[in-house]
Amino acid sequence: MNGKLPVELLVILVVGTFILVILLTYSRVLGQKIENASEIVGPGQEIRIFPELFPEYISLRIDGPTIVGGSNSYGWYAGGYAVYHDPGASVPLEFTINILPQRDLVIDGNRIKLVVNTDLSSPNFVGEIGQISYPIRITGGESKEVPITLTVAPYWKGTLVLGAYVYDAEKQQRISSQAWSVETPIYFRVKCNVTLYSGTNYGGSSLTLESDAPNLTEYSGPCNGNWNDCARSIAVPRWCGVIIYEHVGFKGASTRLCDSVADLSSYGSEHWNDVISSVKVESLPGISPRITLYQDMNFKGEKLLLTQSVSNLESIAGPCKPWPWASSTWNDCVSSIEVYPEDSGLVRVYVAANYGGGELQVCTQLPDLRNEKAPCEVYSSEWYSEVICDWNQKISSIKIDKSYTCYPCT
């Protein structure tokens, strides 16, 4: 030997030293984790060990929603769920949170709790999240299903997303995976029962339809054994609409009815008695309209939510002043309007207080009132004169017509 270490031995020494440094460092960190842990997990105890190192120690999954209660039902509609319910009633939807810990777990709702939210719902969820029954005891390696009920306000419509995770309140950190439910578009509709009668004034035989009828010859009835060309009056409940057609398959002449008709022979220029061959049943959300007034265009700025008529917007404190020393009100202050749900009612806005002056009928969203024609007004001063013929900042009173509920926009 010439006093030099073989290359192989040098490589082994360098690699061994590197591995030793890593092990010593990891042992020190791991020792700190063990030293900081308040308790070691045992049977029936909460998970308290190394949540920083193992954030996926508890896995979650969310299933649902399903409809709660026999009076509600749902079906597939426009890429989501159409929930059919009684008018004005909130709708409970049930989800199931599946929790799978690797060790025995007790979620007591105090130190360790199950956090449920709807942060990803769009628009913002309106309703209540049900209570969770604590404690929740789960054996390690076995899953536990925890039901949670969301009671949804009947006027809410959007994409519902439920999220959940397990949270350690003492350590102020999440100790599980975070689960989200599948994005589910929800549409609320009233259960509709439209009834055809073979006689005028709702007399004679009757046929009640809960859904579309593309061919009335398929329904047993008093006219040649079926209901084709047989109806002489029709009952249409509130929150419901019906389109009647001259021919089967929703073809030929048609008209939409928003209310009951006692004598179809006197309805419209076509005289609809004894000519109906197919019917489409339509339903609405089933609540009175809510109107939101916005100070600025495109639904921005300060806003005011109304569910009742207002005879004088000057009586409501708001962001606008007609002159510097006047009180701030909502009179002549609105630049955009939102009616929700769309087609749930008819909103009439007026230029003057007490429902006077020019009138504009609104049943949907108007992002820019400058685009809506209004009675022209001349604004003049010592320096200029201007003629304005739109509705921007000209509304002084609002009337919500709750009785007009069937497709006022068409």
Task: Describe the structure in your own words.
The structure is a single chain. The chain is mainly β. The chain has three domains: 58-190, Immunoglobulins (Immunoglobulin-like); 194-283, Gamma-B Crystallin, domain 1; 290-401, Gamma-B Crystallin, domain 1, CATH 2.60.20.10. It is 7% helix and 41% strand. It has one helix at residues 7-36; strands at 58-67, 73-77, 80-85, 91-101, 105-107, 112-117, 127-129, 136-138, 144-152, 158-160, 163-168, 173-174, 179-180, 184-190, 194-197, 206-209, 220-223, 233-235, 240-247, 251-257, 278-283, 290-296, 300-306, 317-320, 336-340, 346-352, 356-362, 365-366, 373-380, 385-390, 397-401. The strands form nine sheets. A four-stranded antiparallel beta sheet has the order 1-4-9-7, with no helix packed on it. A four-stranded mixed beta sheet has the order 2-3-14-10, with no helix packed on it. Strands 6, 11, 12 and 13 form a four-stranded antiparallel beta sheet that branches. It is flat and about 105 Å long. The termini are far apart. Residues 27-56, 70-79 and 405-410 have low confidence and may be disordered.
The termini sit apart by 102 Å
General shape: flat
Q: How would a textbook summarize the main sheet?
A: 4 strands, antiparallel
Could you say how many structural domains there are in total? 3
CATH fold category name of the largest domain: Immunoglobulin-like
Q: Can you count the beta strands? A: 31
Look at the structure and give the CATH class of the largest domain.
Answer: Mainly Beta
Task: Label the structural class.
Answer: mainly beta
Q: Trace the largest sheet across and list its strands.
A: 1-4-9-7
Mean pLDDT: 78
Q: What is the CATH superfamily of the largest domain?
A: Immunoglobulins
Question: Helix fraction?
Answer: under 10%
**CATH architecture group name of the largest domain:** Sandwich
